[in-house]
Amino acid sequence: MSQQSSVAGHSNEAIGYSTILTVVATIAATTGLVLLSQNDDSAVVPYVALLSLGSLAVFIGIWRSMALTAKMVFGVALILHIVAIFGFAAFEDDYFRFVWDGWRLIISGSPYGVAPAEFFGKSLPDNGLALTLDGINNPHLPTIYGPTLQFIFSLAYIFAGTDPLGLRIFFAAINLILVALLLRWTSPEKAALYAWCPLVLAETIIHIHPDGVMAMLLLAGILLAKRHPLFAGLFFGLAAGAKIVALALWPLLLRMGWRALISAIGTLAFIYGIFLIQGQGAGFDSTGIFAADWYYNPMGFALLNVLLPSSIARLSAALIGIVIILVLHARTRSLEVAPIAMIFGTILLFAPAVNAWYLLWILPFATKSRMVWPFAAAVALPLSYLTGLNLENPALRDFEVHWMAWLAQIIILLTAIFWDCWRFQREKKVGNPAEISRTPIKQPQITVIIPALNEENSIGEVVRDIGSQNWSNPPRIIVADNGSADGTVEHALAAGAIIIREPKRGYGAACLAGIAAAPPDTNIFLFMDGDGADVPEEGPALVEPLTDGSADLVIGSRALGQKQTGAMTFPQQFGNWLATKLVWLIWGKKMTDLGPFRAIRADALDRLNMADLDFGWTIEMQVKAVQQNMRIAERPADYRRRIGTSKISGTVRGVLLAGNKILYVIGREAFFR
C-alpha cells in the first residue's frame, strides 16, 4: 500500500469514528433527557447540564465536516424523535394550553375570547380536561396562539384527547418534515446540526413547543419560491398564522413576486378571518398584554430597560429591531442567501422575553451558514431554565433566572459573536472576490451626453467649453433634447453638438437616447448637465481614472468640491446626503454625492442595463455599479449656480418627485431584486 493510500485510509477511518461518536453522543443525550424528565424527583440542574453539554458535543462533532449522507441524517433523526416521544415536560407547562385550545376549537368553533379561568368551578366532560385546566399558566388570559397552531392543536386532541402524546407525535412529524426539507436545502452535514441537536429534540418533543411549525412552513415556502410562488405565499401566510414573528421574513415575498405576496396576505387574512367573524377576536388582546408586560431572560433589551423607562425601552427596542431587520433584508443579494438566522436573532436580541425554544426559529436557517453563535445559543439558552421556580429557590421570583445563569448565557453568546466577527473579517480579507480589474484605455473615444430641456441661455457655452478642453482625442458631444420649446437645439448645433431628440420627458430617457445614438467605437461616456452648473474644465480629470484602468465609474462629487453660494438648495444637499448614507448602510459603499457630472466605461455601462427614465437615473447607476462590484471613484467637482430655473430643485413638485423617485429606486434595488 502506498503512503498516499494509507493516509486516505486513516482519514476515512477517523471520519467514521467521529460520526459514530457523534451519533452515540446525541442518542445518549436524548435518552438521558427522556429518563431525567420521567423522574418525579428530577432536578433541573443535571437536566440543564445534559441539555447544554449534549448540544455542545453534537455541534463540535458535526462541525468537523463529517462525511454524512442524507439517508443517515434522516435515519438517525427518526430514531431520536421516537426516543424523545417518551419524554415528559418536567419543567414546562405550555402544553396544557395547547390541549385546552384544541378542545375549545372543537366544541365551540373558536379558542379565542374566553379565558380558561371562566371555567373554574364548572363541570367539564372528563377528569382529563379538569387536570388540563388546573395546569394552564396565565389562565385569566385568553389564548394568544395563532390559527395555524390551533388547527394542529385540534387535530392532536381528536387523535389523543388530553394526552400530550398526541401533540408530541404531531410536532415530531412536523419536525421530521423540516429535517427532510433541510436535506433538500443544504448539505447533510449542515442539516444534521439541526436534526441531531438535543435542544431541538427537547424543545420540540419533550417540552412540546410548536415553534418549529413556523420554521417548517417558512422553509417550505422558500423552496417553492422559484417555481410555485403562489404556494410559497401560502406557506408564508400559514407561518405568520403560526407565529406572528414570521412577518419579519415577509419582505422576502417581494423578491418572489407579487403573486407570492398576494397569496400570503390572502392566506393570513383567510385563516384569521375564520375566527374574527365569530366576534371573539383572534388573540390580539392577550398578545398585546404579553408584549407590554412580559419580561423574562432578556439579552440586549436588559440594557435598554436599565437606561430607559420600561414603555420607552420596549418601543425603542422594537424600532431598533425593525431598522436592523430592514437593513438585513436590503443587504440580501438573493433569496438563497437571505440572512434569516440574523433576522430572527435580531428579534431575540431586542425581545423583552427570550426562551430557549425560540431557537427553533433560528437553528434551521443557521445551518446554511458557518456562523457559530446560533449553535452557541443552543448551549447557552438552556440555562434560562434555572429559575426560582425550577430551582425551588425562595430568594428568586418564580420566573427570575439566576443571575449566574443569565451572565453565563451572555458570556457564551458574546464569545461566539466575537469569534464569528473575527472569522468573517479574516475571510473577507483573504477570500473576498476582488473587484473587476480593467486594462487601461490607450485610445479613449469619449462621447459626452448632455440631456437638455429649455437650456438656450447656457447650452452653447457648455458645448464649446467641454469640447475645448485638453483631450487626447476630441470628444463627440451629443445633446439629447428632451422636448425644448426654446432655442436649445439651434444653440447646441451652432456650438458643434450632435442633436438627438427624445420627446419622452425624463432625465433618464434623454440619457438613454444619447447612449443609443453614440458612435459604436465609444469606450467612455461622460455625462453632464447643460445648465452651466458643472465645470467643463474638470472633464479630463473625471475621465482619467477610466483611461488608466483604476476605475469603472467616476462621480464628480459636489460634496468634495467647492459650491457657489446658492448653487445647491438645502433639499438637494439633504437628499444627496440621505441617499448616499442609505447606499452605505445597505450595500456598504461610501459615496458622497449623486452628481450628474460623471464618467463611465462603455463596457461597464452595458453591464448595468440602465432603465430608469427620469430622476432615478443617477442613483440607479451608482447602486447597480455597487451591486456588480465595480470600482467606483469620486473626484471633487466644483458646482456653480445654474443658468435659468431648475426643473427639480426650482419647484416644490420637482423636489418631491425627485426625492420620492430616488428613495423608490433604492428600495426597489434593495428589496425587489
Helix-strand blueprint:
Blueprint: H1 3-38, H2 44-63, H3 70-84, H4 94-108, H5 127-135, H6 147-160, H7 165-185, H8 188-195, H9 198-206, H10 211-224, H11 229-242, H12 252-256, H13 258-276, H14 284-293, H15 300-307, H16 310-330, H17 340-350, H18 359-366, H19 373-380, H20 388-391, H21 403-431, E1 446-452, H22 459-467, E2 476-481, H23 488-494, E3 498-501, H24 507-516, E4 524-527, H25 539-547, E5 553-557, H26 570-587, E6 598-601, H27 602-608, H28 617-627, E7 632-636, H29 652-672
Parallel strand pairs: 1-2, 1-4, 2-3, 5-7
Antiparallel strand pairs: 4-6, 5-6
Helix pairs in contact: 1-2, 1-3, 1-9, 2-8, 2-19, 3-7, 3-8, 4-5, 4-6, 6-7, 6-11, 7-8, 7-9, 7-10, 10-11, 10-18, 11-13, 15-16, 16-17, 17-18, 18-19, 19-21, 26-29, 28-29
* Low-confidence residue ranges: 1-14
| Shape label | elongated
The spatial strand order of the largest sheet comes to: 3-2-1-4-6-5-7
Gap from first CA to last CA: 55 Å
Radius of gyration: 31 Å
Provide a count of the helices: 29
- CATH level 1 name of one domain: Alpha Beta
Question: What is the annotated CATH architecture of one domain?
Answer: Alpha-Beta Complex
Keywords, separated by commas or semicolons:
about 675 residues; mainly alpha; Spore Coat Polysaccharide Biosynthesis Protein SpsA, Chain A; 29 helices; about 60% helix; Glycosyltransferase_2; Glyco_trans_2-like; membrane; transmembrane; transmembrane helix
Polypeptide structure, described:
With 673 residues, this protein is mainly α. Helix content is 58%, strand content 5%. It is built from 29 helices and seven strands. The protein has a seven-stranded mixed sheet with strand order 3-2-1-4-6-5-7, with helices on both faces. Strand 1, helix 22 (459-467) and strand 2 form a beta-alpha-beta unit. The longest helix is centred in the N-terminal third of the chain and has 36 residues, at 3-38. The model is unreliable at 1-14 (pLDDT under 50).
